[in-house]
Amino acid sequence: MESKRKSMEEMQQEVDQYIGQFKEGYFSPLALLARLTEELGELSREVNHFYGEKPKKSSEEEKTMEQEMGDMLFVLICFANSLEIDLEEAFDIVMNKFKTRDKDRWTRKEQGEINHESN
């Protein structure tokens, strides 16, 4: 299933159009936080199955981390939309924080290492 890449703004609009067709609209912030927590638990379970010591039972449905992250993203977008938060702006704020406050927190790679890994 190939599709065009979407900006966060486009994703927020798509979710808003989807939710907007239902009378119930967005859930309350508390309900959305509970759903986000539930989805995080499902992602955690998948990570534990793949990287941890707990293999899946043969009766368990096959899910992927990609699906679980998609579920989390959908709920996060619902949460942001319900509070009228622009996630692109929120992302820019947090990246600025990391680039300034944490700029010397970790050991930087040499320029050659960075270029080599991106090829």
UniProtKB/TrEMBL annotation:
<dbReference type="Pfam" id="PF03819">
    <property type="entry name" value="MazG"/>
</dbReference>
<dbReference type="GO" id="GO:0016787">
    <property type="term" value="F:hydrolase activity"/>
</dbReference>
<dbReference type="InterPro" id="IPR004518">
    <property type="entry name" value="MazG-like_dom"/>
</dbReference>
<dbReference type="InterPro" id="IPR012359">
    <property type="entry name" value="MazG-related_YpjD"/>
</dbReference>
<dbReference type="InterPro" id="IPR047046">
    <property type="entry name" value="YpjD/YvdC"/>
</dbReference>
<keyword id="KW-0175">Coiled coil</keyword>
<feature type="coiled-coil region">
    <location>
        <begin position="1"/>
        <end position="53"/>
    </location>
</feature>
<feature type="domain" description="NTP pyrophosphohydrolase MazG-like">
    <location>
        <begin position="27"/>
        <end position="106"/>
    </location>
</feature>
<keyword id="KW-0378">Hydrolase</keyword>
<protein>
    <submittedName>
        <fullName>Nucleotide pyrophosphohydrolase</fullName>
    </submittedName>
</protein>
